From TrEMBL:
<feature type="region of interest" description="Disordered">
    <location>
        <begin position="15"/>
        <end position="45"/>
    </location>
</feature>
<dbReference type="InterPro" id="IPR000210">
    <property type="entry name" value="BTB/POZ_dom"/>
</dbReference>
<dbReference type="GO" id="GO:0005829">
    <property type="term" value="C:cytosol"/>
</dbReference>
<dbReference type="InterPro" id="IPR011333">
    <property type="entry name" value="SKP1/BTB/POZ_sf"/>
</dbReference>
<feature type="domain" description="BTB">
    <location>
        <begin position="70"/>
        <end position="143"/>
    </location>
</feature>
<dbReference type="Pfam" id="PF00651">
    <property type="entry name" value="BTB"/>
</dbReference>
<dbReference type="GO" id="GO:0022008">
    <property type="term" value="P:neurogenesis"/>
</dbReference>
<protein>
    <recommendedName>
        <fullName>BTB domain-containing protein</fullName>
    </recommendedName>
</protein>
Length: 418
């Protein structure tokens, strides 16, 4: 009976408390002539109904943006949305909040109900996530908000939240959104975020140059990408990408100086020969995945004065065209390097290289190697490369081919965990 009696009294006390809090909130619901709006935590200024005997995190979650016993109000974002908090909780979590509400700052002296703390540089949704982390150690990080939450974690010196954001960058920044993340970071200028983004961009730039977000880059962001000296593309790829950006955004003086690629070049070795037909079909077999970025292709002839015409090199992978390029014919061992969008090779992959000659050069004998082997490997990838053809070889007359002739000088590749 006593338990029932006390429960009745507690229920009456809670009802009275809610009425008093609501009345107090109503009188303070207008600050500086602006009516408080709603947040993701519910209608700002309305005391939330409390639940009891919950796990600690859930109990504290009820207090986020809840006027119940709140003694500090923030005016957040460009719209000035009001968000409620509790000094005891936020000042013990953040050194910045501790100094702000206990030191010589204006917020420590003013009545927080009539003069809220102004936070113009953080939007309400992000500020609510920061409070969620302070109150409950819970935060919803995604590709859209991780940079802004990272900024807020630095502002309020929440190092553990900063670490969570850094882990999120590693996990959530992908080839599909990296340009967007890179552009958004231009307002924050976090060097570690830039480096993470540039690592992804430099790895497969030809793909990124084709994306819509590339045309939305600011001039400053474009200049940073163009200034990279090591990147997996050639100068003509960079030049064409910049020209496309200029057509969309206007003239810009962009200098670039590509000095090297990031990937490795695995060369073939074998005996030298000149044959009339050097179309090549290679079967690459790997034990672990590799990324293929391009090929070096022989286009030399055994003549003192090479013919003036050009040949077209066409590179296919699993019957899909990766690249084509028209190149002049050179004397002896000249190699043309052709790069394309990164291709992931897993187990077996058929690479075809066709050299298309004009009609007047059909019988032209061009350089190739035979009995070839790769002069290196990529760690555990253990690349095996051999002739693979669905047609009878014109040299040895066998299918599959036994003479192993090849017009590919080297593979441009790297080990990958994708």
């Amino acid at each position: 009976m006593k338990i029932i009696h006390w429960r009745a009294q507690i229920g009456t006390m809670m009802a009275d408390t809610r009425e008093e809090s609501a009345a107090g909130t109503k009188s303070n619901s207008v600050h500086n002539g602006a009516t408080s709006g709603s947040t993701s935590g519910g209608s700002s200024g309305t005391v939330k109904k409390l639940q009891f005997d919950l796990p600690p995190a859930q109990s504290l979650m009820q207090l986020i943006n809840n006027p119940y016993l709140s003694d500090v109000v923030f005016k957040v974002g460009q719209a000035g949305e009001f968000i409620y908090a509790h000094k005891l909780i936020i000042t013990t979590a953040s050194e910045v909040f501790y100094a702000q509400f206990n030191g010589h700052f204006m917020e420590a002296k003013n009545d927080q109900k009539s003069a809220p703390a102004i936070v113009p540089d953080i939007e309400p949704g992000v500020f609510m996530e920061v409070l969620s982390y302070i109150y409950c150690k819970l935060v919803n990080l995604n590709a859209s908000n991780m940079l802004d939450i990272y900024y807020a974690s630095h502002k309020y010196m929440l190092q553990s939240l900063s670490k969570k954001c850094e882990d999120a960058f590693e996990r959530l920044t992908t080839e599909d959104n990296v340009l967007k993340v890179f552009q958004e970071n231009q307002k924050h200028r976090f060097d570690n975020v830039d480096q993470q983004c540039l690592k992804i961009i430099r790895d497969n730039p030809i793909k990124h140059f084709k994306q819509d977000h590339f045309l939305k880059l600011s001039a400053e962001a474009l200049l940073v990408i163009a200034s990279q000296s090591t990147i997996n593309c050639q100068e003509d790829h960079m030049r064409q990408a910049i020209e496309t950006w200029k057509k969309q955004n206007g003239a810009l003086d962009v200098a670039y100086n590509i000095k090297d690629v990031l990937c490795r070049k695995l060369h073939f070795f074998g005996s030298h020969d000149f044959k009339a037909n050097i179309d090549t079909s290679l079967l690459l077999t790997v034990k672990s995945k590799i990324a293929l970025y391009g090929l070096g292709v022989f286009v030399g002839v055994d003549q003192e004065i090479p013919p003036a015409g050009k040949v077209e090199i066409v590179i296919m992978c699993q019957n899909k065209q990766l690249a084509s390029k028209s190149v002049p014919i050179h004397k002896n061992l000249q190699t043309h390097e052709i790069m394309f969008e990164k291709v992931i090779i897993d187990k077996n992959c058929n690479i075809q290289v066709e050299i298309k000659k004009p009609d007047d050069l059909k019988k032209l004998k061009m350089f190739h190697i035979k009995g070839f082997m790769l002069a290196g490997t990529l760690g555990k990838a253990n690349i095996v490369c051999k002739q693979h053809s669905t047609q009878q070889c014109y040299i040895c007359r066998y299918n599959p081919c036994y003479c192993q002739h090849n017009c590919v000088s080297y593979l441009m590749c790297e080990a990958t965990h994708e």
